[in-house]
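Below is how a single chain appears once it has passed through the pipeline. First comes the sequence as given, then the structure the pipeline wrote out for it. We keep one example in the README because the format questions we get most often are answered faster by looking than by reading.
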Amino acid sequence: MALTVTFAIVTVSLIVQVAILSLLIYGYLLYQRLKFRKHGVIMAWAVFAHLAAVIAIMVPSFVLAVFPYYIVPHTLELTSIISIIHEVTGGLALALGLWFVASWRFRKDFKGCFNKRRLMLATMIVWVAALVFGIALYTIFNWTLLMG
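Resulting structure:
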């Protein structure tokens, strides 16, 4: 029962992250169409949704399961290494996303945003890397359920 509930929770988390990826892609398309305010609003929603998922699901999962049962006793094993890379890239992407949203604060003036373009793109790349490592962890932890 507990395994099924855990599987459902992490599956919802994965679905939320894929939805956030869709928001990020949509936000990027808005930027390309020069709809900067809409771009900023969509990206802010993506950051807030990601923050909510991190607080509600990812931090508790890491603290209660991944850290004590994988990283501490088996630091150099593949699951632990993937977990650490996922946590570092995900934390960096979230921190940068929050910084972008906080520095913009939904202002109508976009001048400060244009000089951050490269850092925004780098943040997107880091976030996608975190997503890929997250999908790898999801697959590792749920392999028997997925194949059974």
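Residues 36-71 form the longest helix (36 residues).

See the next section for the split statistics.
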